[in-house]
Amino acid sequence: MCGLIGALSRRNVAPLLLDGLKRLEYRGYDSAGLACIDGAGISVHRRVGKVAELERLLQRRMPDSAIGIGHTRWATHGEPEERNAHPQVSRDTIAVVHNGIIENYEGLRKMLEVMGYAFSSDTDTEVVAHLVHYHYAGLSDLFAAVRTAVNQLVGAYAIAVMAADRPDCLVVARQGNPLAVGIGDGEQFVASDAVALLPFTDRFVFLEDGDVACLAADGLSVLDADGQAVERPLQQLDVAGAGADKGPYRHYMLKEIHEQPDALADTIRGCVEHGMLLPAALGFTDRELLQRVQAVHIVACGTSHHAGEVARYWLESVARLPCSVDLASEYRYRDPVVPPGCLFVTLSQSGETADTLAALRYAAKAGYLGTLAICNCPASSLVRESAMHLLTRAGPEIGVASTKAFTTQLLSVLLLTLLLAHRHRHDAQAGRSQLEQLRQVSARVEDVLNLSRRIEALAVPLVNHASALFLGRGPLYPIAREGALKLKEISYIHAEAYASGELKHGPLALVDDQMPVIALAPSNLLLDKQRSNLREVQARKGQLFVFSDRDSGIEAGPGVRLVEMPKVDALSAPIVYAVALQLLAYHAAVLRGSDVDKPRNLAKSVTVE
Ligand code: M6R
After folding, report:
1. In 299, 455, 525, 606, which residue has its Cα 20 to 30 A from 388's Cα atom?
2. Is residue 304 within 6 Å of ligand 1 at its C-beta?
3. How far, in Å, is the centroid of ligand 1 from the Cα of 494?
4. pLDDT, mean of residues 214-219
5. What residues form DSSP beta bridges with 323?
6. Verdict on whether the full-model pTM lies above 0.90
7. Where do the domains of the chain lie, and which CATH numbers do they carry?
8. Among this protein's residues, is 301 annotated catalytic?
């Protein structure tokens, strides 16, 4: 969702900005642009559509400039049109790129119009460009002008600003949206995601909310929200494998699905030593706090929320801790009650999801025992702002549809559950046997990957339908919901998931011979109940697509298509069955010809509320 980049160097930055924009494509966008300063002043280049369109435009005449800013825009204010793409420019003097939403832009726009500024776009960003222009005209100091302008803004933003007569400095500011400054050799960069800058540097300064910074040849100056000069720590990022290509795979999503056995094994390796869980690796550097946890409250969005819903089953049944799970966008508006000794847990792949961050900020003041972020991005705002963190070890995930980040989240919350369940020493042996079982999970996921062709065959009849139902029970109910979300996201087939027991309370009305019903039915304590629900579907001639193991006794037949899954223990089942549904969604999307890695209207990192 919107990507921003800027560069100041001795070499020509235009190709670098273009390269960076390509690395930001995974975030989702509908137009792209860049601006540079050359002998003739600010030159702006914008295109609706992919970065490739912008590249084609630039190939005709590549700018030659030592300073520039670029952007991929995901439309919020105004349609995806060239005039609404960024950079936005004020009177040929100030160019701005912006992520986020300026909530008071309408009032500012009216004020600026009265002052004589003419608007050429529908964006909130153009307001920022004119506002900076106005203050720059009065102050003749770009750094001061941006500081004064951002003081008038309400909302969330990360901006990069340059002035036609200052080709030696780039001014940036953040409030609620991430900004990473990359420090190179005699050159400086800025981006909304460090991934965009990895070819140029591995040294980063992450700005904090309220910071305004000036990048110049002689160094970086940062002022905090109070206008005080501050030094933000320089961090070296481990970039091994980051931004790697698709290898032999047709899509990033398929590559990431196949990376799961290794990612899961890495997750266990990172949290277990000599058969024992490592509390510090699971976030508990404070062992005393671990003993005080009496309840858990999980907050997340989308796929990460589904991981939280599975976690609730585990935390209650295995660790015997009361657990509630909320959508981040709902949580802080419902005035939640905080039980005594309650740990607040966020789950997020990116660590930059605006709703989840807002929930964390609310929770930090709400009287929880502590805040724990379970996150895949070590340098993210969520990790930096939480008291404790547990890093999932999925590695960079590029496909918009989350896959390996989800299964490593599941495994991480499962390990956390075992830690909480066995935190008293006399239980240690019980924990060991469960951990031993979990070591098999990578091998079982590998078995599912080997079923890819069979699952592809199942996707063939599915893709002709407009709608599908997913059914599951217990911890496999949230997995059914995740399967439905995956199918919706990338194949655009409408899908809904239900706890199987709910079928007869409403959705059964939808079932006829045209309705595919995808059911998760491993042999477990709930199998008999699940089989009864499947019979209810069969009695209405619904088309069953069943994922089950040999011990269940479920057989293929008229109206029943079957994928025989490996036999797995109850704790591993959600992880293993999730992978099968990822493959189903993937194959359905490929068969329908959709843009698997960048589905329409979606963004990898959702940085607006
Ligand atoms: O980065 P996060 O895990 O916080 O993102 C939350 C959701 O936006 C994300 O899981 C989304 O639902 C994915 N597109 C799912 O595939």
Report:
1. 606
2. yes
3. 18
4. 89
5. 296
6. no
7. 3-236 (3.60.20.10), 251-439 (3.40.50.10490), 447-602 (3.40.50.10490)
8. no
